[in-house]
Design a protein that fits this description.
Blueprint lengths: L1 H11 L6 H26 L4 E2 L6 E5 L3 E4 L38 E8 L1 H4 L10 H12 L4 E6 L7 H10 L8 E5 L7 E2 L3 H5 L4 H10 L3 H10 L6 H4 L4 H4 L7 E2 L3 H18 L3 E5 L5 H6 L1 H13 L3 E4 H8 L16 H17 L9
Parallel strand pairs: 4-5, 4-6, 6-9, 9-10
Antiparallel strand pairs: 1-2, 2-3, 7-8
Length: about 375
């Protein structure tokens, strides 16, 4: 080993070695040192950034700010030291472990995009989310079909992040149906709009950042040099500790008019790809929050109506299903509990069945 190192040094760094050879030798040495540091740090350092819920591991993403950590292994809830939900993800951080990008022949794929309601907020396990229940609602009445429902929701996401995710990764899964549910985070305050936050640097710089974010060494240095700069809230443009001090400078994460444009782009992309699209208005029993979201809800309904797009008002459906549904179907004023997610899945499946959307795709 030492003999080979000595031979390398004498070959590349001899006094009579050409400058270009010395340069190549320097690059190789730096690369080797970096590789050793990276390997060592990966063995002892966890680059995951936890949100306020300890069981929600996120990592920074150069294109949509952050994402759920890829390739999470499911937890055994029967273990005495495991607290919280069983959670697993695939290579893209989707809550769809085992589902690969390439779609097998004969499979009908549904791509679910959304925030924590889609992901399964409030300590909901993999098998208690609405995408999970939707798969089995379909399969019960269509046992001959091979159904894959991809849960690509992420807590805290807005429609802007969801659209970027659809374009960069979602469409590569070749979905036969797309379900979109974003409304809870659009009106929230931030130092910059999501669009400004995500496009503040040129595309080539985002590519470089994407490579850096894969390095545990870089993330460790970044966390030491600028504590909190990669936190989920900071990456979303709305660190809570700064909101009161900078209230007059705050903006909506997604202003209403841009929300309309984002929804329209969802619809246009789906139409171009000839993929049915369903827009969701999410359940929300809290009157105060519904008033805060009212302008965005109006924009959502008007955009769906103007485009004659598939649309399900889940708040209305939940009200019809059970009076005071917040007492039995909700974990809090935003997130359905497991029973609520089951109702949500059943409502969506009845709509899919009534319109014959399962007759398409799965080729």
């Amino acid at each position: 080993m030492f003999k080979k190192i000595k031979e390398f040094s004498s070959s590349f760094f001899a006094n009579d070695a050409p400058p270009i050879k010395r340069g190549i030798g320097t690059v190789l040495v730096v690369a080797a040192i970096f590789a050793l540091l990276e390997a060592g740090i990966r063995a002892f350092y966890d680059p995951v950034i936890y949100s306020s819920v300890k069981m929600l591991p996120t990592v920074p993403n150069a294109y949509y700010m952050y994402q759920i950590k890829p390739n999470l292994a499911p937890l055994d809830r029967s273990s005495w030291d495991v607290q919280g939900p069983s959670m697993s993800t695939n290579q893209d951080g989707f809550r769809a472990a085992g589902i690969k990008e390439k779609k097998p022949s004969g499979v009908f794929r549904i791509l679910c995009l959304g925030d924590s309601v889609t992901f399964g907020g409030g300590n909901i396990s993999d098998n208690e989310t609405y995408p999970y229940y939707l798969k089995w609602s379909i399969y019960r009445e269509n046992p001959g079909r091979v159904i894959q429902v991809i849960n690509a929701g992420c807590p805290g996401y807005t429609s802007v992040q969801g659209l970027e995710l659809l374009k960069r990764r979602g469409l590569s899964y070749d979905p036969d149906l797309i379900i979109v549910g974003f409304v809870h985070h659009e009106h929230l305050s931030a130092m910059k709009t999501d669009l400004d936050q995500m496009t503040s640097v040129p595309e080539w710089i985002r590519h470089i950042k994407s490579l850096l974010y894969r390095s545990s060494f870089y993330l460790m240095i970044r966390r030491v040099a600028a504590p909190g700069s990669l936190s989920m809230s900071h990456l979303a443009g709305a660190p809570g500790e700064m909101q009161s001090a900078m209230k007059e400078e705050m903006v909506m994460r997604v202003p209403v008019e841009y929300y309309r444009k984002t929804l329209q782009e969802f619809i246009d992309i789906a139409a171009e790809k000839q993929i049915p699209l369903i827009l969701l208005s999410l359940p929300n029993p809290d009157i105060t929050t519904r008033l805060q979201e009212n302008d965005h809800l109006t924009a959502l309904k008007e955009t769906a109506e103007r485009n004659r797009c598939h649309f399900i008002d889940l708040h209305e459906q939940f009200c019809s299903y059970r009076e005071n549904y917040e007492l039995t179907l909700m974990r809090d004023f935003v997130h359905p509990n497991a029973a609520g997610n089951k109702v949500m899945a059943d409502v969506i499946y009845e709509y899919i069945k009534r319109l014959g959307l399962l007759k398409q795709g799965g080729k």
